[in-house]
Design goal:
The complex is a heterodimer. By secondary structure, chain A is mostly helical. Chain A has one domain. In chain A, helix 3 packs parallel to helix 7 and helix 7 crosses helix 9. In chain B, the strands form two sheets. In chain B, strands 6-7-8-3-9-10 form a six-stranded mixed sheet, sandwiched between helices. Chain B has a four-stranded antiparallel sheet with strand order 2-1-4-5, with helices on one face. In chain B, strand 9 and strand 10 form a beta hairpin. Chain B starts with a strand and ends with a helix. The relative contact order of chain B is 0.16. The chains are: A mainly alpha, B alpha/beta. At the A-B interface, helix 6 of A face helix 2 and helix 3 of B. The complex binds adenosine-5'-triphosphate and magnesium ion (MG).
């Protein structure tokens, strides 16, 4: 009996949360155009979410690319196809690793910060104060942050990919002595603009929307105490990371089959 | 007694979870006067202000502000109404990433296009009135609690609202500042033709400026009238509250179960 009651109440809770989330999404999107207009606010958020995420994206991109170069070389040599290292590195980065790893890092670095910031604004009554001054927090707080994520994450993913390819090049050509011409020529041949690059970008944009919505919603609906905000921040990282991986599977299935 | 009413609360009932905060409460707040709302801590004074401002929804009853039912208004109409309201939050609620100056300028920048020199003069005047013109470029984190509340007071009045809600404006102020604030609230009320709603525990200060006062307890109005009425009240309850006696009918405690139950249930 108790189990059944627990089941019932927890599924009701989930439904209620979904309803709130839907309501949240429906009130943010109409507010988005206003944030383009509030250029200074937007710029500041782009700086916070984008520019400050650069170091971690650059370093991670380089290492992931170097590992890809190394592993690719090892595996492809056994098929006598080591010229394909460039292609392999580029394709895996552009199609999957670039958008996905950049998004995971972004969720940890920028998403958690957004949740904590908005949650603190809520617990210090700043959101209430905005409402009382007849300023919609959706337009002033939430929308600029969402838009900033949509702008920055695709760029960060592209930077991650470029860094990764450079890392692969360093290892394969610089260290393992692969022919430089072969590395680039193969890559140029095999990577398709529309099929690969555009699809990668679409993924990055989808992840940006997902991460921003989850982190802003968690902050906005957090329990306004220090514990509530810290839990919300943890939930953001967990939900956003799992969400990115799940969404990646769906998008891959749609794009590459 | 009120002739012209600004806010009319009719049969308000409001719950926080299981707990009934307001129980069929009715109250009229007059226009153009200073109305004080008093009551023991945790009776729901802040909650009442939030209900009036439309931030919380009542479970039953209506609240009319200037004749409009606050909770039936469209979002746009509600926001227009709020431009005519100023609220001083109990915690100050300053925007932490803006300076003191920008905090006070914020409502002006959002709602009006003013030339920068005019805006500057206006904001500095408001800050001067609360004695903080020199602190204009500090960040909220660099202010003391009392200073933050004074900045919030400047911000609440910067749009020249028609009504201002003060939630505990005197907490954390030294006696001199307190006197200045009491004066300021009174002066704002007469010179700008405002209506002020003042929530506070400081019985003496409140009764010195309030034209009309009411005492809340356990979801009901237990007494209302002019300051004189309350001071001369023969209700034991009001006397206890005003004189601050520990013993009497006013419950100090949050509702509890009897001590005996505390031991019998695991
Ligand atoms: N967000 C909330 N969730 C649940 N209960 C709340 C919440 N906010 C306030 N309460 C409860 O509502 C009651 C009234 O709170 P309120 O803040 O209005 O009191 P108050 O009269 O302003 O007290 P004080 O003078 O101490 O500020 C309190 O007993 C509190 O327990
Ligand atoms: Mg209060």
């Amino acid at each position: 009996m108790i189990f059944l009651r627990y089941l019932g109440s927890s599924s009701l809770e989930v439904l209620q949360a979904l309803g709130k989330l839907a309501f949240f999404v429906f009130s943010v999107f109409p507010a988005l155009p206003y944030s383009v207009w509030r250029f200074r606010l937007l710029l500041k958020q782009i700086y916070f979410t984008g520019v400050l995420s650069l170091p971690i994206i650059l370093t991670a991109g380089l290492f992931v690319g170097m590992v890809l170069g190394l592993q690719g070389h090892n595996i492809l040599t056994s098929f006598n196809a080591e010229e394909a290292v460039g292609t392999m590195t580029a394709l895996s980065l552009i199609r999957e690793l670039g958008p996905v790893v950049a998004a995971l890092l972004f969720a940890g670095r920028a998403g958690s910060a957004l949740t904590a910031e908005v949650g603190l604004m809520k617990s210090t009554e700043q959101l209430s104060a905005l409402e009382m001054m007849a300023v919609d927090p959706m337009k002033f707080v939430v929308a600029p942050r969402l838009l900033a994520c949509i702008i920055t994450l695709p760029m960060l993913a592209m930077i991650f990919i470029a860094m990764g390819i450079f890392g692969g090049y360093l290892v394969a050509v610089g260290w393992l002595g692969l022919d430089e011409g072969a590395f680039w020529a193969h890559m140029n041949d095999q990577v398709d603009w529309h099929e690969d690059v555009i699809n990668g970008l679409i993924k990055a944009i989808a992840f940006a929307v997902l991460i921003a919505i989850i982190s802003l919603y968690q902050g906005y609906e957090s329990v306004p105490t220090s514990e509530g905000v810290s839990r919300a921040t943890t939930r953001t990282v967990v939900h956003a990371s799992l969400g990115v991986l799940g969404l990646d599977f769906i998008l891959t299935a749609l794009m590459f089959t | 007694m009120p002739t012209d009413c600004l806010i009319e609360i009719q049969n308000l009932t409001f719950y926080r979870g299981e707990r009934k905060i307001f129980d069929d409460l009715s109250l009229t707040i007059p226009r153009g006067q200073v109305t004080a709302i008093m009551g023991p801590s945790g009776t729901g004074k802040t909650t009442l202000l939030k209900l009036i401002a439309g931030q919380l929804k009542p479970h039953a009853g209506r609240i009319l502000v200037e004749g409009q039912d606050v909770h039936q208004l469209s979002r746009t109409a509600l926001y227009q109404l709020r431009q005519r309201m100023g609220m001083l939050f109990q915690t100050g609620a300053l925007l932490t990433d803006l300076t003191v100056f920008e905090n006070v300028a914020f409502p002006l920048r959002e709602h009006f296009k003013l030339a920068e020199p005019l805006l500057r003069t206006l904001v500095l005047m408001k800050l001067e009135a609360v004695g903080l013109r020199g602190a204009f470029d500090l960040m909220p984190a660099e202010l003391s609690g009392g200073m933050a509340r004074r900045v919030a007071l400047a911000r609440a009045s910067v749009l020249d609202p028609k009504m201002v809600f003060y939630d505990e404006p005197f907490v954390g102020q030294d006696p001199i500042t307190m006197g200045v604030l009491v004066d300021l609230i009174r002066k704002l009320n007469t010179s700008l033709d405002l209506s002020s709603i003042l929530v506070s525990h400081d019985v003496n200060e409140v009764l010195s400026i309030a034209d009309f006062a009411c005492v809340l307890s356990e979801g009901k109005i237990v007494a209302q009238g002019t300051a004189q009425d309350l001071l001369n009240s023969d209700s034991e309850y009001v006397r206890q509250f005003i004189q601050g006696l520990p013993d009497g009918p006013v419950p100090l405690h949050y509702p509890v179960k009897p001590w005996a139950d505390e031991w019998s249930t695991p």
